[in-house]
Design a protein that fits this description.
It is built from eleven helices and six strands. The chain has 244 residues and is an alpha+beta fold. The strands form three sheets. Strands 1-2 form a two-stranded antiparallel sheet. Strands 3-4 form a two-stranded antiparallel sheet. The radius of gyration is 27 Å and the shape is elongated.
Length: 244
């Protein structure tokens, strides 16, 4: 935006807006404008103006269809995507998480109190059919792997060692109303390690909090195993002194 345009008075902007109301640029003009703007980052002020202008507005079904078709054509080859092969840094993920905290829960969620119709559910199901299963899923890691036969006992030992308490938020099994999840700090698929030094107890979902999922997606916040010794006895006849 030029300096002259930036300094226009509210009255002048209102007149310009009224004069252009209902008018549309030709396809040729829109193409020229798109070519000129391509690759030029928008200023924070410009983005703020766009956000304010679009607040409360929703594109029509026809417009959404055009936008979707344009994106599919542009990113038909994943290599063309600007984030292809890249990952957000820990700092960026923290900023994204912080900016979204509390904004999409309860009445703040745009789907609060609403439900998809049977027809919409069927369309979503058909659109996703086979696309997110097995190797097509973004979280696919090669399929199920067998745990060793001692895993049930080792799980009990880990819960006993951690006093049946989540090592991240401090909630107990009694307060939670269910058993703690036993999380592997280094994934079993990579380490095949079920030793207590690789296990830590974390809670499941309660009051919108899920420490197990949080540590799965953000390994940097996962607590270390407890650093004291406990005597674990009576587990399938095994009695041993273990480090926790």
């Amino acid at each position: 935006m030029s300096e002259a345009a930036r300094n226009r008075s509210p009255e002048t902007r209102a007149k310009n807006s009224e004069a252009h109301r209902g008018k549309r640029h030709s396809p040729e003009t829109r193409a020229k404008m798109s070519d000129v703007a391509r690759g030029k980052p928008k200023s924070a002020e410009h983005r703020q103006h766009i956000a304010e202008a679009m607040r409360g507005k929703h594109p029509s079904a026809e417009t959404r269809g055009k936008m979707s078709a344009a994106q599919q054509k542009r990113f038909a080859d994943p290599v063309n995507h600007p984030l292809y092969g890249k990952c957000h840094t820990i700092e960026t993920r923290a900023k994204i998480s912080e900016s979204r905290r509390g904004k999409c829960r309860g009445s703040d969620n745009h789907m609060y109190g609403k439900h998809h119709t049977a027809a919409t559910k069927r369309k979503i199901s058909e659109a996703l059919q086979g696309k997110r299963r097995g190797a097509n899923n973004s979280h696919w890691k090669g399929g199920p792997i067998p745990y060793n036969l001692l895993w049930p006992e080792q799980r009990i030992r880990a819960r006993n060692r951690d006093n049946y308490t989540c090592q991240l938020c401090g909630i107990t099994e009694e307060e939670l109303g269910e058993q703690m999840s036993v999380h592997r700090i280094r994934p079993f698929r990579e380490s095949a390690d079920n030793s207590l030094s690789n296990l830590v107890c974390l809670c499941g979902n309660h009051s919108g909090n899920n420490c197990h999922i949080r540590c799965e997606h953000h390994p940097e916040v996962c607590p270390e195993p407890r650093k004291h010794w406990l005597l674990t006895e009576g587990l399938s006849g095994v009695s041993e002194l273990q480090m926790s």
